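4.2 Preliminary Data

To establish feasibility before requesting continued support, the project team ran the inverse folding procedure on a target of 142 residues. The structure was first converted into the token representation described in Section 3, and no sequence information of any kind was made available to the design step. The complete token record follows.
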């Protein structure tokens, strides 16, 4: 059925030679370039920014920082082994866990709590506080 309609369209096209082909190659390339450009700005660039932020965050981790691992373990950094790219995290008194630096999802300086949220997560002081509940809204009387 579709082939029938396509053949009719070609028949209605007229001369069919060079006059029907005006700028065919260029008209195909432009939309493809636009799609690739949009894909870059909406997908690739934000991913690169997030990776850069996470690398900076991991590089800044020092003893005393509060961290959250990819597995959800919260603790305080007791020691950083730069060469092996491992962090010794104190989870509780007398409980230390070795964690790969790449598996740390969020970190905050001593004295601040870490908020879950991935690379570059905000601390509690930076995070916005939720509004207080004031009860159901009532319509205004005029």
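Position-by-position output of the design step:
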């Amino acid at each position: 059925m579709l082939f029938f309609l396509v053949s009719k369209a070609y028949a209605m096209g007229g001369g069919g030679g060079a006059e029907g082909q005006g700028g065919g190659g260029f008209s195909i390339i432009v939309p493809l370039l636009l799609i690739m450009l949009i894909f870059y700005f909406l997908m690739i660039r934000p991913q690169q920014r997030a990776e850069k932020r996470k690398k900076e965050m991991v590089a800044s981790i020092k003893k005393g920082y509060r961290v959250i691992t990819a597995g959800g373990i919260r603790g305080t950094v007791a020691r950083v082994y730069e060469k092996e790219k491992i962090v010794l995290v104190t989870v509780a008194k007398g409980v230390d866990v070795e964690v790969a630096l790449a598996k740390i999802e969020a970190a905050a300086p001593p004295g601040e709590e870490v908020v879950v949220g991935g690379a570059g997560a905000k601390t509690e002081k930076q995070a916005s506080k939720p509004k207080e509940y004031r009860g159901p809204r009532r319509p205004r009387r005029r």
